UniProtKB/TrEMBL annotation:
Record keywords, A-Z: Isomerase, Metal-binding
SUPFAM superfamilies (UniProt xref): Glyoxalase/Bleomycin resistance protein/Dihydroxybiphenyl dioxygenase (SSF54593)
InterPro entries the UniProt entry points to: Glyas_Bleomycin-R_OHBP_Dase (IPR029068), MeMalonyl-CoA_epimerase (IPR017515), MMCE/EMCE_epimerase (IPR051785), VOC_core (IPR037523)
Pfam families: Glyoxalase_4
Entry's family note: Belongs to the methylmalonyl-CoA epimerase family.
Superkingdom classification of source: Bacteria
Organism: Pedobacter panaciterrae
Known EC number: 5.1.99.1
Molecular function via GO: methylmalonyl-CoA epimerase activity
Top EC group: isomerase
Protein name: Methylmalonyl-CoA epimerase
Domain VOC: start-end pairs: 3-131
Length: 133
């Protein structure tokens, strides 16, 4: 794993939260995107080499909606950038981690993604992401 790529934060109201984070970080949202397969709208902020991804549910049945119902707004996941997501998935499986998807899938911000189950990582949902070239 190369670096922390972004921290994902679940929010109820994307527009309100974008304004909040713009004021907090002193920078504008550089990208908003819908990820229909996950029933989520996203907004990205860059600060230094780090990114923040705000996630708002577009469906009551989405993973983000369930997270918000269970835990409320807050940190949802930590994403790590990898050079080769398939090889990293294989490595993590060999190490005994449980992956939430068997194949990388398209994610936001031009990435292939895979999630690692939080039960095996002290309750933290981890996302692997590889930039699509």
């Amino acid at each position: 794993m190369k670096k922390i790529e972004h921290i994902g934060i679940a929010v109820k109201d994307l527009d309100f939260s974008c304004g909040l984070y713009e004021r907090l970080l002193g920078t504008s949202c550089y990208k908003k995107e819908e990820v229909a397969s996950e029933s989520v709208n996203t907004a990205f902020f860059k600060t230094g080499e780090s990114k923040i991804e705000l996630l708002a549910a577009t469906s009551e049945n989405s993973p983000i909606a369930r997270f918000l119902d269970k835990k409320g707004e807050g940190i949802h996941h930590i994403a790590f950038e990898v050079d080769n997501i398939v090889l990293e998935m294989e490595r993590l499986k060999l190490e005994g981690f449980v992956l939430l998807n068997e194949q990388p899938k398209p994610g936001a911000d031009n990435k292939l993604v895979c999630f690692v189950h939080p039960k095996g990582i002290n309750g933290v949902l981890v996302e692997l992401c590889q930039e699509v070239k």
